[in-house]
Amino acid sequence: MTAPVRIPFPVVDEVSRHCLQEQEPETVHIEVHLPGPLEPARLRKAFTEALHRHPRILMREAGGPWFRRRYEWELTAEPDTEVVTFTPAGPRALQDARTRALAEAPPLTMSPPIRLEAVGLAAGDRASTTQGTVLLLTINHTALDGPACLRILATAAELYGGQDNNPTAPPTRAAEPGKEPPDTPTTWSPPARVAQGTPDPSPGNGMLVTELPLPHRPKGSPYTVNDQLMVTTALTIAHWNREHGARPRPLRITMPVDDRPRDTTMPIGNGTRLVEVPFSPGELKAEMSTLLRRTAERTRALKSQPRPQLGHGAALLTSPWAPVAARAALTRGLRRAAAPWTSTTLLSNIGRIPYPLDFGEEAGRAHAVWFSAPARMPRGLTVTTASTAGRLHLALRWSRSLLSHGDGAHLRDLFEHYLHTTEVAP
Length: 426
Prior knowledge:
This protein is α+β, with helices and mostly antiparallel strands. It is built from 10 helices and 14 strands. The chain folds into 2 domains: 7-161, 2-Layer Sandwich (Chloramphenicol Acetyltransferase), CATH 3.30.559; 205-314 and 338-350 and 375-421, Chloramphenicol Acetyltransferase, CATH 3.30.559.
């Protein structure tokens, strides 16, 4: 019998594995809304086949002695457990599924470390005004990220419905040759934190999702919708902090950058690299057109710079110079010490969903897709956006030790207001 293939944990996976917390699981949630019903047996068959088409997802954490130098993924020929479950429509069916996605991470010791819940919707449900089905995918972020699992869902859609689910070409931004690198504010002081609102006594994360119009952008603008979202996030947090009596401090917003292809050759795993976009308090008072142009220059420069996923320090920390148990303790200690210098928040803009996510004539094509990223302290708040069918789908996710649902609703209102202010006239 051939021994299972083993793959050492990449840097991102290992750092995440070292720092797991039961109180705030590292989950990514993807929520796909379809207009019609799905056949359970047919969906199970399509999703299982999609897993086999992308075999890197069929993995579990391999066991090992305490003195081992590496965590390792063990590839499996088949899933260890039933991945797809079905929940009938009910007054709280979708709300309860969202709660599970934030509170219960799929175990790393079972292959694959994801689960897919098909939730029936009926008109009048608390979380929906339409009938249909919601596919709610919960991902253990130590193993995988949202874009990789969306690729697997697109493969499942094609197998289920027989429709072409090839990705559309990504939008391009014309290069501007001869431009000098933009001025970037530098500071040796820790960045601003999101001011504390009204903490919730229960542990874990809270989340709010909403649908907004895509912001208008004059033709030929030097900035993208992503730049508008970045400015909106900065202005929203600056406003929130002013309301809560925090003195003005520089903001740093983490932005994931994903350079992977979106077709069936897409590498499956944690494939994004993180860059930080800074804003000084004075910059946020500039005229909107100036702020947008400056932000566009900054994000363009940051995206073009080659950089390890978590920086050079993380690569050194995860080299096998000592047993994983010792390096885990060191990593957790360094993370606590570096907490004040952690970025203010994370904005993950998935952008236009590149796949139709068309499940055929009866189930139909996705008309809304939400993502949410973990919101563990010290950031305590993440902003995730995607666009589908010409609409912007926004998810705010927060640590309940920092904010309450009412705080989330106020932040949503501020975000909507500032998003509208980025629609400057030509």
